[in-house]
Fold this protein.
Amino acid sequence: MTIEEWLGEDNQLGIDIWSKKYCNEGESFDEWLTRISGQNEEVAEYIKEKKFLFGGRILSNRGLNKEGRKVTYSNCYVIDPPEDNIESIFDCAKKLARTYSYGGGCGVDISKLSPRGAKINNAAKETSGSVSFMELYSLVTALIGQNGRRGALMISIDSSHPDVEEFIDLKTDLDKVTKANISIRIHEDFMEAVKKNEDYRLYYKREVTGEVIEKWVNARELFHKIAETNWDYAEPGALFWDRISGWNLLSNTEEFSYAGVNPCAEEPLPAGGSCLLGSINLSAFVKDAFTEQSQFDFEGLKHCVEVSVGALNEVLEEGLPLHPLEEQRQSVRRWRQIGLGIMGLADCLIKLGLTYGEEDAVLMCDKFGFGMVDSVIAASANLAMEKGMFEACHVDEIMSTPYFKENTSEKTRELVRKYGLRNSQLLTIAPTGTLSTMLGISGGIEPVYANYYERKTESLHGTDVYYKVYTKIVEDYMKRFDLKTDTKLPDYFVTAMTLDYRQRIDMQAAWQKHIDASISSTVNVPNGFTVEETEGLYLYAYEKGLKGVTLFRDGCKRVGILNTHTQKENKKVSPGEGLKRGEILLVTDDVVGKKRKLVTGCGSLHCIALFDPHTGALLETYLSKGSTGGCNNFMVGLSRMISISARGGIDIETIVDQLNSSGSCPSYTARRVTRKDTSKGACCPMAVGNALMDMYNEMQEELAQKEEGSGGSAPKKVKKAPKPKAVPSASQIDRMYCPECGEPLIFEEGCNICKSCGWSKCH
């Protein structure tokens, strides 16, 4: 088999990713497959079928140690937290440097370090505080190269540490600690104080001197500060630490404790711990896709899980001598963590005709999750029967954990009772951005980010030409049913920015019940999302039982760190371009009208839109609820504001972005659950925005077809209405750009990813 046969001849992006990231010095696909599978034919077959794939470190590094390369198979490590002395603090920096040099990312917790102002008996008299040493660790991360990248680092601190407010504020300075993610370990007593609006004690006792440093803060105000800083800077992340500590196979094992989390926060690990990653492509197990007869092959999934667990354990054994530090080798030998996860969930649901985030999709994910965890525990028990338990395995303690009791069948419990487990940690949902882009599927448990992307090519005349590249699942569906435009897609083709944001949490919660580690998933929200909404989403995530939550607001200040490009020249043509302040375009008689009948939470809504016949830009909107008073008057007012915005030079993307920031409506949610006939969106303004964008895209397609049929020597793409010069969009100005190809990045699964060339910050 060739790489073209595996990925598809038309998947040039996937071929490029494989060649640049995973292929070793011109080896063929078959040679690569033999190397990374360890000559395990069953594993190799699953890889060829695109049903299973190792994590990136294994795909690129396995077997290269035979050539004398100092590389690790593990994506991530957690460093032993530094003790409260200068020697330990700098030893930690040394450990970070050595781990980065082997290709691993790191997590480190600084909660043991004295807060600012603690008394010390040297020249300084007082400590500079725990936060002051974060710059040291960030500098080390920046210095150590990893084949063109820098290492990845997560720094965490406890919510009760007296320096926690300084920790939150640190990254509001965009010039500080630029090479680390930061997260706060949030405890249940803090969250209860938040809900009751009570004061919360920040406390630290210095072991060397016995000095106690404490102060009281209002918990709700501190929580608001966390949410506000995340809203503005996309950090700090929230780690619900008691959930992390209490929902796993070792929660009743006294000798075990988590020391921190990896850079993407899906891997809580003990000191020196590491994790080997692999992911199962759920979409590959759907039979009769896109039909009413579609069904999921649970038996096939079960067998794939069994083979995957065996494969990861083979890699674990092979890689034991390859960890950078002795303490890492000892930890891995003792606990034997692996991290089997998933990708392609959104594609899987689409093939089954289920809408991501809706109740039936959540229930299906619950079924997927239990099937995986029961199978993975059984597989580890069977390995223990053959090869022995992990060193610190205490069967009674494992079987008494709430996690084990809720996630195993009687048959699996009997296996564990007889043989124990080969691994102390089994399931994690890690970022799969690069892998899923290579395969052309959705990443992790994320929804489809967009139905299409715009790619750039340069014409013969030296101008940039943008063209649509449909997401693979969209392309497959359109070919299957001979669709010419994505406007005809069924309603279950939802995207990250059209979902109700709580639905993202609901989906993550369904999986979290079955994952003993954690999940890397990002809730993407528009620029207009408020601080209060951010705070509410954090609370909702806590109430739903998540172990952590990541939120990324489009256009937040964090992108300033990564934006190495000046704003690109806007070459599109806009109606009203050059308008002076206060000037409004008149609507002429030659406009093109389109209409949609929408079904909302409280009945039908008629939407009419008028477009410029030459550019296809939105000019006028009419909305009617078919009744008088109340909501109808609101709709009339909304349509007038949309119209005046459009005619004043605001482009449709900006208008729709604002409409999509409206939140959700209870009546809409209730009808969607009971009658399941609502239009796309979670409230009337969002439904209107989606309808306007559908009509706009339809208009652009018609103009393109008209131009192609005009007899020109070469078809030209009709340019879309741009961001006007007078009212630039913050999300466009503050866009992150890929360091390799210069195209815009998206933030997905806790990582910056380029959908044009496949680059990612994390892998």
